[in-house]
Amino acid sequence: MKNSSKIVLLVLGLLLFSCTDEILIDNGTATNPDTDVMRSSKANVSKYTPPLFWDFNDLTGWVDATQVGVPNYFIDNGYLNISTNANTWDRTKIKTVSTFTTGTYSWRVYVPAMGIGDMASIGAFLYNDDTHELDFEIGYGNQASRQELNAASDDLVVYMTSQANPFQSIKNKIKREQWHTLSIILTLDSKNKYIATWKIDGATQATRSLTYGTKSKFNIFCSLENLTFIGDHIPNSKNYALFDFVEFSSN
Fold it and tell me: What DSSP assignment string belongs to the chain?
């Protein structure tokens, strides 16, 4: 009788172990516990990093980074509404708490009309320090830049910039009063240095090999700043932008 009880308990234990093992999920797909695939998944499951997605239902994971003026931003029905005031040099910013390296960084941004000639810039950028910074900056543009680009009345100017190491700044036109997806993709070359690629709505705009690699980690920024290079005069109006989401996915 005792031996029979032991056998029953042993069988039950094996069944429980089998059921527990089957519920392990890797990348959202259940796997067979009797295969090499399952054993491989167990070994690597802790290394899997899903995309990070901030949809701005709140500001979890972000902190204020405003440099000049009071923080002019708020959550508005799932959007980050960020702005600067007229006749000021406001520099309103938020940044991620965490830092990142290689991967794809994307911002979905509503680009409004912007004040004609206003020195106001919508920023979607990566920042480590002043010599390790990669930017999208969008504004009305000064008259010389608009003429050079043959900008139409519904165009703004977008700058795609590596601030140093090395410096590069490419400018192009971008339609105002529309939503756009801005992306910066960071990969590594054979010497483990970054290669940066800027895309707008999936189309490549610029690429640059950088002189530094993953020791330089980046905070992700969303901003609206009144900056002298991007217009003809101090802003005459209050300018704003809407951010729908920010996403980071590792390579």
Answer: -HHHHHHHHHHHHHHHHHHHHHT-EETTEE--TTSHHHHHHHHHGGG--PPEEE-SSS-TTEEE---BSS--EEEETTEEEEEE-TTS--EEEEEESS-B-SEEEEEEEEE----TTB--EEEEEEEEETTEEEEEEEE---HHHHHHHT--TTEEEEEEEE-SSS-EEEEEEEESSEEEEEEEEEEE-TTS-EEEEEEETTEEEEEEE-S--TTS-BEEEEEEE--GGGSSBS-SS-EEEEEEEEEEE--
